[in-house]
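ugh ok so i messed up the first submission bc i forgot one of the chains. this is the corrected input, ALL of the components this time, i swear. 508 residues overall. if the numbers dont match what u have on ur side tell me asap before i send this to the collaborators (the ones from the other lab, u know who)
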Amino acid sequence: MVDKLIDGAGCLLKPLERSVSSELKQSYLFARLDEEQIQRVEAMSRRVGLSDGQYLFQAGEKATRFYLVTQGQIKLYRLALNGNEKVIEIISPGHTFAEASMFQESPNFPVNASAIGETELYSFDNSAFLGMLRESVDTCFRLMGDMSQRLKRLIKEIDDLTLQSATGRVAGFLWGRWNAGKANGNTIELNVPKGVLASRLSVKPETFSRILHNFSEQKLIQVHGSSIEVIDEEGLYRHAESAGICGGSLSPDL
Amino acid sequence: MVDKLIDGAGCLLKPLERSVSSELKQSYLFARLDEEQIQRVEAMSRRVGLSDGQYLFQAGEKATRFYLVTQGQIKLYRLALNGNEKVIEIISPGHTFAEASMFQESPNFPVNASAIGETELYSFDNSAFLGMLRESVDTCFRLMGDMSQRLKRLIKEIDDLTLQSATGRVAGFLWGRWNAGKANGNTIELNVPKGVLASRLSVKPETFSRILHNFSEQKLIQVHGSSIEVIDEEGLYRHAESAGICGGSLSPDL
DNA sequence: GACAATCTTTGATAAACGTCAACACAAAGG
DNA sequence: CCTTTGTGTTGACGTTTATCAAAGATTGTC
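and heres the new structure output, hopefully the right one now
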């Protein structure tokens, strides 16, 4: 499951001259920085490459940098003493993570981070970035927006865990993904190993498999390896909402 | 369970001349504002009083203000369609809440809020406060620190939910509270109704009761109404850690 | 102090999910 | 080509926790 612990940083790639600034600007956080600021961010950045399963950092480590994914995926997860792992979040290209610990007195990562597939990212020095933040209230605001979004997401996650059954969570996930990518003709591509997804949904792999099987039998979906065809959207939604949230006009994407 | 929906604001108390600024300064968020800024915050504040069970706001409502509790407690919770409620957080005096939604494009409260016991609070206008934030990077930083703390707490909450059994969660809670208030001679005061606490721990009241009963039989604790005497700290800790977190030197208070 | 309302406890029952173990299947590598 | 390793599936079984129902406790109120 885990490949090897690389000395806290994975293998360092040399910075690409090409399109660093354009890559940075993909991220909401850096999007509206001016050229001079982008230059400074670049200067404090390092490019890191990880192969599948490699650690980026472990929970409890001192947090001195934060990250932007440009390729592949990063899974943030926690471990129980018995070895159980729970995936908290899966970070896709264009998104930053670990930027919240910047503001802690003695910053430690609250989660473990490792790569899913071949992954590339930038890392940025916390204190240097903090320095820049001090000069730009605008960027502060952007960051705060980002954090408040994350807060909302986590709260949503907590409901899902407590108010929904495992079956409901899986149904909700499928329904959400189906809605997100209606373009692809009723087919959802799980671009993550099923085991990881199961953990993300807080379900054991065996149970996840069984639930998908059930849904198949109920003619709600049809599974072909890691792509899932949605047959009965209605039915799926019924399963998802049966334990879902009310008291709020929460957008489905939340 | 719920008293009555007051028109979005509870009953308005008239501002007390007395010690508003000193009360504000209790909160981390306002602590280091200068006198002029405190004045401005005061000007945008309203004092609100709620009696037990009264709504402050509901999930989905437009969020235009945020709050500081000065007396009593506020419970933030979510509702499932079947009426189940899950308490996300219990806010005690000196703490602010709902300040994160300020930064959302179209801010809506992600949770419901209602009072536990006689409760008093200040509310502050989002846009006015945002204006002030623009002028004070320092306050931005403080706010970001606050938010990142909340993020960490929520992540911790998610582990507790997924990596721990109900029994472990209760044990962990008791152990944490025992550690927090060692002064009080091995006795923990639950200053919240057991049902609310159960929800906070994501356990049904019945189950909560049974778990306490079990712990009693195992001579770990002794229950006297809403105060609990810890007899065997070790044993309690064993229960808590059996499914607890590793891979991190997470402080017990996290 | 007595009554009502609410909260808490207790018991019996059942469903959902996790665990353990074996097996299928695919991709990777000799 | 055949092993090997990782990953997903299936089955049998056990445990935990929710649910339903009802009886005690507490609290507040008149």
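quick check: Chain A touches chain B through 58 residues (CB under 8 Å). that seems consistent at least. Residues 11-148 of chain A form a domain with the Jelly Rolls fold (CATH 2.60.120.10).
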